[in-house]
Each structure stands twice: as structure tokens, then as C-alpha cells.
Amino acid sequence: MKIEEEIKQSSFKDAYQKVYINTVFTANWLQQRQSGLFKPFGITLPQFNVLRILRGQHPKPATVNLIIERMLDKTSNASRIVDKLEAKELVTRKQCPADRRTVDILITDKGLKLLKQMDGLVGAEQLGIRNLTPEEANQLSDLLDKIRS
């Protein structure tokens, strides 16, 4: 559906305003769709992001600073997210033996199993991204990179 129909606005100041509004709307739309997919698993989008970061590091530990650097949502409170994941037994936290000021964070087997279970359910197909051709997906990715540069 076109952005004009989605937000019931027939005209925009210019093409830049339209693309800005469309980008913000689509980002929120994607987040809502993902949240709906995550709900049955009892985790949030930021928690999923942290688990995927930790799986990428596995079996090496990560620090909170490393997690913050790699998070998609830089406004999320990584320490609080790790606390919640630890309470769910999806991660463990231990003092680093080499540096007592550092805390090592590791994904647990339970966390790895949860991500494996979610891998088949949380993907581009469910989020409408497969409506794009591979060429269109590459072009959109390049354009989004260009906006941020």
C-alpha cells in the first residue's frame, strides 16, 4: 500500500519529505511486525538483537561495550537487556579472569536453542522484504547506506 493511503495524506511538501515519512513509517511497521513474531517466544526486539550478537561471538564472551557497539538500536539500555536475558537463563554473566573490571557475557545453550527455533520463523519472508527482487534489495540497501553517509 502506498504511503499516501497508509497515512491518509495526499500530498507532501516535496519528494524528500515523502521519502523521510515513508522511511520512518516503514521502520516502525517493520518493528511492529517483528515484535508480533517475537511475542510467542517471550522476548523483545532488543533482546533478540543482543542474543544474535552473543551467538555471533560464541563461544567467545562479549562485554557490554561490545554489545552496545553492535546493537541496531543504540538507544537501548544494554545492561538492562542483559539483566532480563540473564533472568530468563538465556545468557550468563561472569567476571573476566584477566580483568576484574570487565564482565564477560555468554549466551547459554538455552539461548542458542531459542535462536535456532526462531531462525526459521523470523526472516525476510515474514516481514515483506521478499517482495523485493534481489537487485531491488541491494539497491535499497545501498540507498539507505547513502542516507547515513
UniProtKB/TrEMBL annotation:
Domain of life: Bacteria
Domain HTH marR-type: start-end pairs: 1-149
Keyword hit for DNA-binding: yes
PROSITE patterns cross-referenced by the UniProt entry: HTH_MARR_1, HTH_MARR_2
Entry-linked SUPFAM superfamilies: Winged helix' DNA-binding domain
Keywords: DNA-binding, Transcription, Transcription regulation
The keyword Chloroplast belongs to this UniProt entry's keyword annotation: no
One Pfam family in the UniProt entry: MarR
Gene3D superfamilies: Winged helix-like DNA-binding domain superfamily/Winged helix DNA-binding domain (1.10.10.10)
Stated name of the protein: MarR family winged helix-turn-helix transcriptional regulator
